[in-house]
Amino acid sequence: MTLPRRPLGRTGEEVTLLGLGGEGILRTFGQEKEAWAMIAAALEAGIAYFESARAYSGSEAYLGPALQGHRHRLFLTSKSHGRTRAEAEAHLHTTLKNLATDHLDLWQVHDLRTEEDVEAIGAPGGALEAFYQAKEAGKTRFIGVTGHHDPEILRLALDRYPFDTVLLPVNPAEPFYRSFLPLAAAAAARGIGVVGMKVLCRGMLPQLQSARVPEIMAYALSQPVSLIVVGADSVAQVRELAAAARDFQPQPPAEQRRLEKMTAPYAQGLMYYKP
Predict the structure, then answer these.
(1) Radius of gyration of the chain (CA)
(2) Which of 5, 161, 211, 229 qualifies as a cystine partner to 14, CB 3.0-4.6 A?
(3) What contacts 93, CB < 8 A, 6 or more positions away?
(4) Exposed, middle or buried, 124 (CB in 10 Å: 0-12/13-18/19+)?
């Protein structure tokens, strides 16, 4: 099976509308059987974008063996939460070993939360030195940044440093507090590849009355994103997510407003990822 693709900003790459996120069952240890079955289901469903992070427990170690033989057709990503060059270099060494590859397609600065974080990564001896060197050495093709606390912090990072992509929250609760949606539009307009996360709000959104997974995903994919990444806990969930991406049709604005209105009373709790 295949999934529709979109350009990833100005990178020249086209990526599947859905990527398998590194959380859910992948953010565990000791569940190889379940994790490998889920990764196999993702491959079978046509998902060709896989993401992880050094902070995501055993995620990278699950992905490495499960993706063997498929690397040539995948877009493989991970993240480092290190703020110094030494920390980031150590993370990359471990990441490449775990993923059984000699390079990433995208390596991301993980979870910027404060102005101090933004300053630190670009300071002498900061993490970006490791990122730039890795790109020059062919250990990553592109460099991205992620954040979910404050859109202004992420905006500051995008204005200051030449990132290829940005990973940020996209869901119908976002408009009600410190929304990342305007930043998504601004980044896309600049040619930055926008990757949506927190799409299902850790599975809480589909539990609301009249909120189904396909329509929540359609909301996210109707925003100015290249793709969305969603974690899963089972093979059945992966198949449901892939089917929704495969059948995606742009969601009319009136339907988007309906979902936002339905979400409004619960928005603060749904945005658990913001302070």
Answers:
(1) 17
(2) 5
(3) none
(4) exposed
